[in-house]
Design brief:
Strand order of the largest sheet: 2-1-3-4-5-6-7
Radius of gyration: 25 Å
CATH superfamily of the largest domain: Aldolase class I
Structural class: alpha/beta
Number of helices: 15
Largest sheet: 7 strands, mixed
Distance between the termini: 65 Å
Strand content: 15-25%
Number of domains: 2
Length: 478
Amino acid sequence: MKTLLINPPMYDQRKYGKPFILPYGPPLGIAYLASTLEKHGFDVKAIDMFDYSWEKVRQTLEKEQPNVVGITCLTEQRASPLEVAKLSKTVNKDCTVIMGGIHPTIMYEQVLEHWPVDIIVLGEGEETIKELMICLEGKRAWEDVHGIAYKHQGKTIKTPPRQLIHNMDDIPFPAYKYFDFNRYTGGYEILKGTWNGKQLENLRFVPIISTRGCVGSCQFCSTPFFWQKWRTRTAKNVVDEMEFLTKNFGCGFFNFADDIFTVNKNRVIELCKEIIDRKLDIVWDCETRVNFIWEDMLEWMIKSGCYCISFGVESASETVLKAIKKKTTPEQIEHAIKLTKQMGMKTKMLLMVGNPGEDDHTVRDTTRMIETVRPDFVSVSEAMVFPGTELYELAKQKGLVTDDFWLTDRPAPYFTIENNLEKLLEWSNIIMSANAGIIGKTLRRLRNILERSTGLRVTGEGIEYRKNGLVKRLVTWT
């Protein structure tokens, strides 16, 4: 029995049919499932189809002739997994289509009712997919497998929930061998320039996960629903994987794709020491919250190669932070970013406009914070509603969206109960303009320092030398 695990083509729901996302690295979800199945002796292959045409998807299915097709599915990308499922059944009507990921986990009844999907893996998938393969070989019945949903005689059956994997070190490393790292040339924003003598753009990028889940309960986020509990791998296990990737795939830049990396200070310090002890010459970054930052931890992070910390700030308005249950304060935002910059690392602010309570005044609070802390990078998005979030339930109560919306191929709706989309886009532009203003001021300051110290001035026409009233053109732009 042959199993094919697929990461579907990544298409822009707003311009369906046109590829729009160039991923930074291999799809870890199906990579973990593949390594788990391999460990237990199953015939499995994983393919990242992010840039495939539909014709190439069909040709691949015809060539591989899998008995089982496993497809990962995100809400905003749901039209693509649906198409892969349809093609799988077209190529082989007897194949078993299994789907997993955040969207089918939450909307399992709808997916089973309307999509050509046989089984849905609910939540964490490694143990479940292993048991499903045993069932499909005829050795067990489906109803014995916890953590799945399926149709039986026209009825949706949901089995008891599966216990979470508590010892994360038991999960084998992702099956990286199925992925060509040369395909992943996405422009990860912070990979620019030189740091510690390394040209960042030349480093092979790879995402890595050291934890699952989050300790937060933000109104707009579905992570608590999907992963439920925050769990960690040991420092040794994580750095074992980093060393493996460095030696076998030449990886030099590690992106910790954890939802929240620095919850446990001692764990982070132990991981950093492990990197240093093994003399891994790498660069890495992570994402966290502003209320989990300590100076001694930051010292170890930069020593071990941490280049940048992205902070899930969302807003610098106390009103909005309380409304979205962020459980952080403007004071913590300022402290965390200033301290991180002081320690020598880059900082990135992840912002979101249009959440409940947002208005012109709260946006101004955020732009003031940008001007105060001067982050190196800013990313801003407009609030959207997704299943599995408190914001989605609020949007349903207010009549903004219904569950039937997800049967369309339309993109997730913006949260426009309190403000219209035009206003949300206006606020995004205001925030990005505030950041651009800081960049412009910094460049002008550097230009003035250069002129005072060397007499050189860069203008729109070229480079001039100015001293004692003398102006001499050294370079003219052509």
